[in-house]
Amino acid sequence: MLYFALSLGVLLGPLGCYASAGPSACSNITSLLGSPKVNSHKLSLKYHKSTEYWSTPQDAYKPSCIVYPESAHDVSVALQAIRAADSRFAVKGGGHNPNTFFSSVDQGVLIDLSSLSEKSYDPDTMLATYQPGGVFGDIYDYFIKYNRTVVGARLSGVGTGLALGGGMSYLSPQYGMACDSFRELEIVLPDGQIVTASNTTNPDLFFASRGGGGNAYGVVTKYTVQSRPAGQFFAGIRIHAFPHKDTIIEAIGNFIRYNTDPKASIIGTYEKLPTPDLNLNIDEAIIMFLVYDGPDPGDAFANFTSVPHLIDTTGIKTYPEVADMPVSFATEASRGNNMFRVGVHRADNEEYKHALEVWRKWAESNKGKYSLLSLDFQPVPKSLTDASKAQGGNAMQMPDGPWFWLNYLLTTPPGMSKSDYNAIQASFRDMVSSTSNAEGLPLFINDANRDQHPLSTFSTYEKLQEIKKRYDPDNFFANKTGGWSFD
Ligand SMILES: Cc1cc2nc3c(=O)[nH]c(=O)nc-3n(C[C@H](O)[C@H](O)[C@H](O)COP(=O)(O)OP(=O)(O)OC[C@H]3O[C@@H](n4cnc5c(N)ncnc54)[C@H](O)[C@@H]3O)c2cc1C
Ligand SMILES: *[C@@H]1O[C@H](CO)[C@@H](O)[C@H](O)[C@H]1NC(C)=O
Ligand SMILES: *[C@@H]1O[C@H](CO)[C@@H](O)[C@H](O)[C@H]1NC(C)=O
Ligand SMILES: *[C@@H]1O[C@H](CO)[C@@H](O)[C@H](O)[C@H]1NC(C)=O
Ligand SMILES: *[C@@H]1O[C@H](CO)[C@@H](O)[C@H](O)[C@H]1NC(C)=O
Ligand SMILES: *[C@@H]1O[C@H](CO)[C@@H](O)[C@H](O)[C@H]1NC(C)=O
């Protein structure tokens, strides 16, 4: 009997603790920071906004409360209170990571960074600072008045967590990944200490934070980065009907292999819609994003512009306009039951054609099971990897380009049964892995599914594991919030 009661206690203890840990962390944080910075009203508009995610299944999770820190100190107090209560938590930037619990939490504390949104520009050093709240569109709008920008998202609606995962920008072929332009970070460590990370102070932490993923070594409360000039861009999208798929894939392959102009940047995207095929070619399209830093692209895009198109929006644009292509609300409009997967391939063989074939066959045989399917080709030219190296390299220690990342997006229709959902996700995973990844190249964190274990593909993985141990020694973050696995 005693044994039974004890076992029951052992079983229920952690559960009981789990259920009350969130509320107890929340009441402590409320007493320490004041109620205006904490929201527990599940029916309020503000609570609703904070629990909206780009991948909408996460909208269903109900944190015990949402904390809106206004300083690094507030973040520190919150983390210590969460730890004291043994609660789960999540840190939310823009909320675009589709992996469950990366920036969402059920019955724990959600730290919503949206109130941390200060920015500054120093014309003498050309250094820019931004805090993690808001989206890159806000950041671009701020710096453009100095005719400057920062290396960040290609779409204005994406949040700053992008930079911690590396960050691929239209400017990357010139300046490297978003994280390569970091010069100093303010970070609240898992134990609540507020530290600076740069290549002279905590250089190991600085290294890991440049592309080693958010949510692992602490919470970044301020980014100091090298700003970049932003004048006139020749840019736009061109939409082609699918019969041109082979010409376009050839042109993408040639661009990856041969383009040497770092001012020219593309994303090539193949899209499949849920509409029936009917041999009318209305269920698929190719959207080319073409961006040139300067008013005249010369013949950098000639292999694309010679292909007949349905729609062409190319012309002279400002940088904020470039980030609003195809439309300013693109990120919002693509909210849904979204999942990402990623592939990495070399450009010296026919893998880009193989990947497209496999993807297209899968799309044909799974009609009705997706509401959107897209395959995005993202070139990593040598100029990008050179620019990264010249600034000290990042956590990926990117091998010399050219090579490319493939981003696979699957949007499933609403109302799918759990078993149908699991089946389609498994089939999608198998389709992606049937095009084998190149040896020695890193999977891109920002486009990866958690089960792809991207960190383990980095040549620096062991070093990152050590750094993780050093800064999260008792596994507080590893145990209490979602994120990439270090095991
Ligand atoms: C429509 C769309 C377009 C995209 N375009 C690009 C692109 O052009 N280039 C590119 O590289 N990627 C792109 N991505 C991928 C994108 O980088 C990732 O989805 C990224 O995780 C988004 O960051 P976020 O702040 O919006 O999301 P969140 O989910 O809020 O954050 C992502 C992760 O980082 C953590 N995190 C966020 N901020 C901090 C912080 N300050 N300190 C510690 N941890 C933090 C979160 O806890 C979470 O685990 C795109 C994604 C979408 C949906
Ligand atoms: C409240 O949080 C602080 C840290 O911010 C911590 O030191 C204290 O122990 C917590 N109190 C309780 C009752 O958990
Ligand atoms: C930005 O560029 C425009 C056009 O060249 C110029 O007229 C303006 O003075 C510049 N602004 C600043 C702050 O340099
Ligand atoms: C365009 O394609 C041709 C091959 O048809 C190739 O030689 C050339 O380098 C390509 N140019 C660019 C900029 O991709
Ligand atoms: C420190 O950063 C500068 C860029 O500001 C870079 O040129 C230099 O190589 C870095 N040093 C190290 C040791 O990484
Ligand atoms: C926390 O992490 C450690 C090390 O990985 C593990 O041994 C422990 O069981 C975890 N604790 C909880 C409560 O999950």
Automatic annotation (TrEMBL):
Quote one Gene Ontology molecular function term. FAD binding
PROSITE patterns from the xrefs? FAD_PCMH
SUPFAM superfamilies referenced in this protein's UniProt entry, alphabetically: FAD-binding/transporter-associated domain-like
The FAD-binding PCMH-type domain covers: 59-230
**Per the record's keyword annotation, is Oxidoreductase included, yes or no?**
yes
Give the UniProt keywords, A-Z.
FAD, Flavoprotein, Oxidoreductase, Signal
| N-terminal signal peptide | 1-19
Do the record's keywords include Ribonucleoprotein? no
What InterPro entries does the record point to? BBE, FAD-bd_PCMH, FAD-bd_PCMH-like_sf, FAD-bd_PCMH_sub2, FAD-linked_Oxidoreductase, Oxid_FAD_bind_N
Family from the record: Belongs to the oxygen-dependent FAD-linked oxidoreductase family.
**UniProt name for this protein:** FAD-binding PCMH-type domain-containing protein
Source species = Penicillium olsonii
Upper lineage: Eukaryota, Fungi, Dikarya, Ascomycota, Pezizomycotina
